[in-house]
Design a protein that fits this description.
The protein is an alpha/beta fold. The protein contains six helices and twelve strands. Helix content is about 25%, strand content about 20%. A hairpin with a 5-residue loop joins strand 7 and strand 8 (about 195). The strands form three sheets. The chain has an eight-stranded mixed sheet with strand order 1-2-4-3-5-6-9-10, with helices on both faces. It has helices at about 10-20, 50-60, 90-100, 120-135, 150-155, 255-260, and strands spanning about 40, 65-70, 80-85, 105-110, 140-145, 165-170, 190, 195, 205-210, 235-240, 245, 245-250. Helix 2 (about 50-60) packs across helix 3, helix 3 packs parallel to helix 6 and helix 4 packs across helix 5.
Length: about 270
């Protein structure tokens, strides 16, 4: 989720959300509502370094639904890996990490969705696609990375998975809620502390939360309460460091930190 650095920058975001009539039904023009991936992208065509922002935009220009990220002629394997972007993502935060994932996994997908839809509605579509792929494929495990608003989406999807071995990584996600962002989503439930309530997931699902430093995260540092703080049945919680390779580790680059750490290419502090 490409949250802006300061809370004041969300005024336009909130206004845009208030004009949404509701979060029901499928988004018009979603080309993959039948549960089948409709597009693929050769990940080796995505540049890095000075080209990383244009590569991110190319990634986000993909059609809605599950996008297969091909690594040359590498065959699919037994682990289904899915990356889920955040609100108004420009994609660049994923490029390095997903290219490293592609060196380790042969079944890699990027999930594109309409971020003007409510997270529980997006989650239903995501879960239906994953369930269909596992049912028709030979996958033994599912690995999901959800960043920011995408982390909220994945948390709602977790309870819908059909009993298969699933490992979920939630990265820099405001799981307790975010001021103004979800006001038009009337189907969401909150507890007495005004934090989001998620459906319980099956024992076959394990969830790891990766939290950025509140004061270092450009999306959250203006908020008095850290929206990453929530009491859920996580396998464990990882507190990310304040710096990465000598620079501030903020909201977007937390994706690179977590994905690279997962494949054994950690960054230095």
């Amino acid at each position: 989720m490409l949250f802006q650095g300061r809370l004041s920058s969300y005024s336009m975001l909130v206004v845009s959300l208030l004009v949404i009539v509701g979060c029901v039904g499928n988004a018009p023009g979603d080309p993959s509502m039948d549960g089948e991936p409709r597009a693929s992208l050769d990940i080796n065509t995505l540049g890095e370094g000075t080209e990383i922002r244009s590569a991110g935009l190319r990634l986000m220009e993909s059609p809605l639904g599950l996008i297969e990220l091909r690594n040359g002629d590498q065959a699919n394997d037994s682990v289904l890996v899915i990356a889920v972007h955040g609100y108004q993502s420009r994609g660049y935060e994923w490029i390095t990490g997903i290219k490293n994932l592609a060196d380790h996994y042969g079944s890699l997908f990027f999930y594109r969705y309409d971020w003007d839809r409510c997270p529980d509605q997006v989650a239903q579509h995501l879960a239906s696609q994953i369930n269909a792929m596992v049912k028709t494929g030979s996958y033994r495990r599912v690995l999901i990375f959800g960043h920011s608003y995408g982390g909220i989406v994945v948390m709602y999807a977790a309870s819908e998975f059909a009993g298969f071995d699933t490992e979920i990584h939630i990265i820099a996600a405001p799981l307790s809620g975010f001021p103004g962002l979800l006001d038009q989503c009337g189907s969401l439930q909150y507890d007495t502390d005004d934090k989001l309530v998620y459906p319980k997931w099956k024992r076959s699902v394990q969830v790891i939360q990766h939290k950025t430093v509140h004061a270092q995260d450009g999306a959250f540092r203006e908020l008095a309460i850290n929206p990453q703080d929530i009491d859920l049945d996580f396998k464990y919680i990882q507190e990310l460091p304040p710096t990465m390779d000598g620079h501030r580790l903020g909201h977007n680059w937390s994706v690179s930190w977590v994905l690279d750490q997962h494949v054994g290419k950690p960054h230095r502090y």
